[in-house]
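Reminder to self: keep the SMILES exactly as supplied, no canonicalising. Ligand is adenosine-5'-triphosphate.
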Amino acid sequence: MAVNSYREDEFMENTDKKKIFRRLFSYLLEYKAILIGVLLCMAVTVAISLVNPLLIEEAIDHYIANKDMKGLMGLGLFALGLNIIFIIMVKIRMYVMAVVSNKILLRIRQDLYEHIQTLSFSFFDSRPTGKILARIIGDVNSLRDVLVNVVTTLIPELITVIGVVVIMLIKDWRLALASLSTIPLMIGGIWFVQTASHKRWQIFRKKSSNLNAYVHEDIAGMNVVQSFGAEEETREIFGNLTDEHQQSFVDAVRYADMFGPVIDFCWGIGAMMLYLVGVRFLGFEKVSVGLLVAFGTYINMFWNPIMNLSNFYNNLVTNLTAAERIFDILDTKADIVDAADVTELPEVQGRVEFSHVSFTYDKGTPAETKVLSDVSFVVEPGETIALVGPTGAGKTTIVNLISRFYDIEDGVISVDGYDLTKISIESLRRQMGVMTQDNFIFHGTVRENILYGKLDATDEEMIAAAKAVNAHEFIMKMEKGYDTELKEHGAGLSIGQRQLIAFARTMISMPKILILDEATSSIDTHTEILVQKGIEALLSGRTSFVIAHRLSTIQNADRIFVIDQGCILEQGSPAELMKKKGAYYDLYMAQFAGLE
Ligand SMILES: Nc1ncnc2c1ncn2[C@@H]1O[C@H](COP(=O)(O)OP(=O)(O)OP(=O)(O)O)[C@@H](O)[C@H]1O
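Structure tokens returned for the bound complex:
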């Protein structure tokens, strides 16, 4: 059940922006030593920029007023030297911050990727792949500017602003107050703009995510789209989604772009107040030209960083939603996790027991609509169990529960007497082999795809596994044998060939418990007989569960479970069930009637 698709916006809890910012900042703190170096560079640049207006005041009031050209030249050279140091420091700071921010993005992406690997099936069942990709790629990239600007803008500009205010107050408190009289207006304006734009940036990110989800789904299902000639419909859906995306962007930008004019307005009024108070009320006898010029520079030095800070804030508001979405995933707890006191499952014999197991995918579903209700059975080591029954009966669900891909609501599932919730998931899954109809083939060589089952296997083991499932022959016919490059999803291979490679991958891991969920359905009958022989040889003495709609493939099973509506309707050997003339007999006759 998908809780959201490309049609619906993702639900996000309201988060505390300060907390998100602090958390993002904590990534920076891991580079404390480097950041202290950067801040020292910046302290030098801030100090130089604060001294510059004083040099101008000195030049005007002392050297120019006294026509001291020599002194003026000396001061000019001194200013030049300071400003060369300024440029070098800025370059160093920019380079170091680019390296640090990239390292942090890598780390966040790695954390996100590793965390997603631990999440349970229910997480992936409930959201489209495209939306997950949007968070790993797009949202993480959006954080780059925020991280760099925290250090290069927030800290130095704040220091500059405080420094400027202090110097202005010391030099002339009346001019200082006049220049800064519009600060309350600015705070009110920015608060209004950020509140309005943050909501709209959240909507924009959700719309981007929807678009991503749709494009991903559309490309993955391109063969269906083209074979049903549905290009027109998909174009229309895509068009609607891009319209929504674009509209949400325009909406957000409309508010975000108000940051600049608010600052400009307050800056302009502040400058007017400075000259009004300086010239009109105080007069030239109290305020020297040099002081007024210095104040004119300081007022720019105050509002310029304020403008930069507001741009930073704007950028923060825009991208904080990306951080929210990343932390939302990082905070998603895996449903299926090891309890604190789990033990390692030792090497198993393969006895599987279900005791009064009930299960539903949506917790809290009424008893009568449960996917499995009160299922009990015992499978002895080495037994081959075939699960048959109508579509949606619950066969796949039963085998998924043995691997503990989902947790049950009632009852106990155990392997060799070990309750699955009391043993580590890794030690359980390591001893299991699961093959489904649509086994994934990764981009890489045939060898890499097979070795996925056992990374340290030797070439001999790999060839033995491939031979056992009769994949060796067709692999050797490929251009470069085991070194042939396969495309993503196994494009370029027949479905049967993909399954043979997946079989070899499962075989090489030599599982103690094997699950074949419609695994042989795409192999032609001749190959299937060969594969079956291989499987039988490899798995003699191992427990296996085989789900098959083609009843001809399960005639060698020790027992057949007929599953219907989440219950085991009947069970027994193929011969016993035929004799019983119950549900299995009916299924068998329905498949083979007319063939005899
Ligand atoms: N991930 C899921 N989320 C919610 N419901 C699910 C999920 N997977 C299966 N179901 C539901 O659980 C029921 C049993 O599904 P299951 O896949 O076990 O049937 P099955 O017997 O294996 O069917 P088939 O022979 O078609 O593969 C069905 O009603 C199905 O809709």
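Points to follow up:
The mean pLDDT is 83.
The chain has 20 helices and twelve strands.
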